[in-house]
Amino acid sequence: MEERIKNLEYSNSLLIAILETLYPLFSKYLSTEQRTEVVQALTEAKGING
Hints:
Blueprint: H1 2-26, H2 32-49
Helix pairs in contact: 1-2
């Protein structure tokens, strides 16, 4: 169980890093509200995965 949690934490961290990298490339296609939601979700996810 502990190993699975570590794998999930790693996967989440990897997804956050990918989204942070790609976000500048696609953010111009999002509405202001969508950009705000993505930034908020990233902030919350990084707070959890810290």
